[in-house]
Amino acid sequence: TLFEQLGGEAAVSAVTAQFYANIQADATVANFFNGINMADQTSKTASFLCAALGGPKAWGGRNLKEVHANMGVTNAQFTTVIGHLRSALTSAGVAANLVEQTVAVAETVRGDVVTA
Ligand code: HEM
Does the pTM exceed 0.95? Predict the structure, then answer.
């Protein structure tokens, strides 16, 4: 699975932490996370991604369409955030082909997150 190829839970968690660091350093998307506990956010998104990448534990959290409803995320903002995931994967030394496959999995939630 992609989960195994990336190096399992520890690797996905590390990439997810870097993903949110990149987001928080980008003023065009950082404000969405004002007041959000980023340690919790990182652990939830890492769990979601582990499951989506074929890991052994099913996602036990909330439905992503409900979670992101009314945030007003645009397609352009989502694309920006996907870029932050791509950079996090690349800076972790993940091979380009695996980066693109992982990004493609994250792209599957675009329709749940984008509402504007
Ligand atoms: C939760 C914003 C993209 C997965 C949240 C929350 C915010 C947020 C503010 C916290 C909601 C709350 O606790 O009240 C955004 C924005 C995105 C984006 C602005 C893109 C522009 C994504 C993507 C994924 C994702 C690409 C998955 C790959 C999650 C998960 C939660 C969450 C798993 C927690 C759900 C739960 O509480 O069970 N998001 N998100 N989000 N987001 Fe996103």
Answer: yes
Amino acid at 85: L
CA–centroid distance, 55 to ligand 1, in Å, is 19
Q: How far apart are CA 100 and CA 62, in angstroms?
A: 26
Q: Which atom of ligand 1 is nearest to the CA of 110?
A: 26
Q: Distance between CA 55 and CA 103 in Å, rounded?
A: 16
- 48-85 pLDDT, tens digit per residue, is 999 999 999 999 999 999 999 989 999 999 999 999 99
Q: Which of 89, 103, 113, 114 to mutate to test the pocket of ligand 1 (most atoms within 8 A of CB)?
A: 113
